[in-house]
């Protein structure tokens, strides 16, 4: 999540695929007129899930056909529809890189690569955590396991600082 205000030039770059359309100047003017909140939704089928929550891009039509959608609730018209949603995974990747330039996006493994990743990295850690959970039998097992997984994350950077004899004294 990030709150920011885009300049008209940044909006032009963000909506470059809309360049040349009649509404383009109004779109960039509106999108640069005030602050916005950019967010990344991370979940299975995120693009289609978000599109479903958004509803139709025209807020007036959304109020008729999808009255509980976000655009029906927060939008005012076709241009000021309240929220943006990526059209595809590739546009989502491009838009995430635009809004969050410091983020490193890696491709999500699929098929055999996904199975190999799970077998090599996820299953051993999860098995150790579930075994420790069974031995411990805490009152709140979900919170305990979450804390255990954070503490025993194999990808967590570990600092090793050896104390010299001089520092010890």
UniProtKB/TrEMBL annotation:
CC terms in the record's Gene Ontology section: cilium
Subcellular localization(s) per the UniProt record: Cell projection, Cilium
Residue ranges the record marks as coiled coil: none
InterPro entries xrefs: Dpy-30_motif, NDK-like_dom, NDK-like_dom_sf, Nucleoside_diP_kinase
Residue stretches making up the Nucleoside diphosphate kinase-like domain: 1-107
GO molecular function annotation: hydrolase activity; nucleoside diphosphate kinase activity
Transferase found in the keyword field: yes
GO BP, one annotated term: cilium movement
Keyword Hydrolase among record annotations: yes
Keywords from the UniProt entry: Cell projection, Developmental protein, Hydrolase, Kinase, Transferase
Pfam family, one: NDK
Entry's family note: Belongs to the NDK family.
Name this polypeptide is given: Nucleoside diphosphate kinase homolog 5
Record lineage: Eukaryota, Metazoa, Chordata, Craniata, Vertebrata
